[in-house]
Protein 1
Amino acid sequence: MRKLFAVAVTCWICSFAALARAQQIDVAFAGGSLASPGNSFSGGTLLPAEGGGAFVGFNGDVLFKPLFNGNLGVQAEVNWKGSQGLYAGQVPDRPLFYDFNAIYARRFTKYFGAEALAGIGGESIRFYSNSYTSCDFYGNCTNYLSSNHFMGDFGGGLRFYPYGNFFVRPEIRLYLINNNAEFSSSHPVRYGFSIGYTFGGSK
């Protein structure tokens, strides 16, 4: 998981190194929630639903001029549960999702655009405990344990530009999580909206 994350971050940095060739850059703040099937049992063990609660996050994309008339590029995002939940009603937890995607985005008119994306990333589930503390070499300490899973994601959104290059984007993401054994489903759906701004590009 760490190697995959390092490779993905490196690719993202290299993409931003080509900003001089970019036709359009979009940055946004996201809000929404997560939907998944309800609780289930496996071998007598309760597997709680992962859905529910408010999620927040950040995302951004870069579209490049030579690719499909400037409509194709790269995108990255991170989203996490805004407050801690209670895993199985007992242990405080908080899931976090991050992903790196190829994106096709097009602005059809001055006021409307759309996008579709797909890529890979990971889920990090953090379980909190006041009795657990882990510190690194630099003295940075945490009070949680993480369970990490590789995932793929698919999604899209509609962009509405009410004023200039400011946009509001209803959006949806399907996460396909590998071995998401802590919860009742490996394919939760995040839905919500982003508020952002488009740099460059025109219509």
Protein 2
Amino acid sequence: MLITHHGSTPDIAPDTRIAPNATICGDVIVGRNCSIGFGAVLVAEGAPIRIGANCIIMDTAVLRGVRDHPLRLGNNVLVGPHAHLTGCEVEDDVFLATGATVFNGAHVGRRAEVRINGIVHLRTRLADDAIVPLNWIAVGDPACILPPDAHEAIWAIQESLDFPRYVFGVERPAPGETFMPRVMPRYAGFLARSHADDTETGDGTR
């Protein structure tokens, strides 16, 4: 399904395959000889999405361009099933395995691999040819690649990346407090208003 959002309609190369139940919304350009799998979602919600040539977005992957953070994939990129990419930049020849997550403002270098359930945290810069092993986390600029049980080492870097302010524009709450009651109503309202005038413009199937 192709959806016009804020006056922008997805632009899909003629030889790209779009699965019947994939959803592509807004200012999205998909290059030649790509494949967008079943249940995949590409949403240019606050910034554009640009997909290069020969890319495969596998079933149920979610790619979002968000405010101040366009999403770009280079050429020859594979995005695995259940992967989630938000407002990031991915260079050519990258392999993002099943369940990989790449957050706002992250940059994944050429030929890098993020293996099953690997994470590239926000504002993190992953070098060319880097490998994030299964379930490991890349965090920082330049990235430190750490195992999931290295909580203190991860937090020592992650805290300064300031997720609450960078993503939601709020101060980090004090211990024992949460920003959720303040942020979620605002965010839900934004999403409702943002998509109120969306219109379906075709199924995009090839």
Protein 3
Amino acid sequence: MGGSFHSVKYFETIVERRTIPGVLSFSATGDLLYMNREAADCSRQIMDTRSDGGSAGRVPLEVKKLCRDLQNVLSGSVSPREFENIEYRRVIGDMRSPILLRGFLLPNFVHLEDTRLLVLIEKIGRRNQSMTTHSRDRFNLTNREQDIITCLIQGRTNKEIAQNLKISEHTVKEHIRHLLRKTHTSSRTAILARLFNDS
């Protein structure tokens, strides 16, 4: 990628910042150039959990949508020098096995058409502990609210949360209402999306 040494260093910094299991690289036109084994495994998992029985091809629809968002940036008024500050995030999957998609542009400043789209796929269940610790500070959560979040991550129903924490379902609902207010969200899934995206 001539003219994009800085972009390669930027990518290395991203990878060093967190263990990233899945890497996909696309051309500026959206053609798949590279997919490592972990990305292929995550892609199969995403497609296997779709209610319509999966999707055609090797790349999940959610990843293709993320690529289209990145392509829109390329065709917009953002200067190439600003590309490196752009990062799109999506949390997909269910609460038992959430997956974080992160999209970046790796610009080629000499030939803009040679810019690459990079998508990182991470199974975020393994990050629950660090995520909830970060969330406590970010959203001023109580210990009990953190317990509720841990249960939400595990995909538990209100009844299961109540049994697990030995509290009433009414109390669980109250805690979830507080979490909705603190995270400025409107659903249980959105709470997790906000927490994962901010971690």
